[in-house]
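Readers outside the structure-tokenisation community will struggle with the description of the input data as it stands. For illustration, here is how one protein appears when written out as sequence plus structure tokens:
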Amino acid sequence: MRLVVQGSAITFAHLAHIHQLCATSVQFVQIAQHGYYLSNQATVNSDVQKFCAEQNIDCAYVQDKQLLKSFGLCVMDMDSTLISIECIDEIADMVGIKPQVAAITERAMLGELDFAQSLRERVALLKGLSEQDLMRVLNERLKLNPGAKEWIATCKQHNIKTLLVSGGFTFFAERVKEMLGLDYAVSNTLEIIDGTLTGKVLGDIVDAQRKADELTQLRDQLGLTTMQTIAIGDGANDLKMMVAAGVGVAYHAKPVVQAQATFALNHVGLDGVINLFNT
């Protein structure tokens, strides 16, 4: 295995202490401005993990065979993963009901509520909003998360296909797909009649199981193995697709997601995924 440590907080003093904890003659190799790896690690060192957590440094023990060239598909959540907002919360803010909607969103992301049920409840509260309100959120508030462009560019460079699969809405997912040049996008469709939201979602809801199903279907379509797939997400409704993937990356995620992911990134952007698999 190799130990990958990264984060803007890293200093040479940190690296020296981690090196001492690892008790190795192998030296750190720098792979990014704030990213380093240490090869030939036989076991996971809990003291290193504890120290890094205390110092706001992301650390991961990565199998040597897990390299960018080893993967063929990356499946990603949208809200709070590829982009910095929860779109439905920002739509709700337009009519002054963000606290009510955000509270439901939070419980769903923590895994306390069934996602499909919570989505229907939240969308019902948006009844009567105009399509123009959605456009305002898209134009004024939708921002890519740090490192998103770099990660997707790296995927293209290594012929890794990209799929956005979101419990959010097509209105936003298609724009993000266009912004990043993603290969595929699957999301929910809000019913809009005469420019006004009806408070309903069209068709089957993209929930946790649907996310996992989309991953496995595209994996098989591309002729890939499970170990050639990566899933990145932040909420409880991303867990099934992360389990279905060869590697699950929790990005600034809820505790329940971090606990079950292969790797967790809490202090770096999405370009931190590059460093996990780059040597």
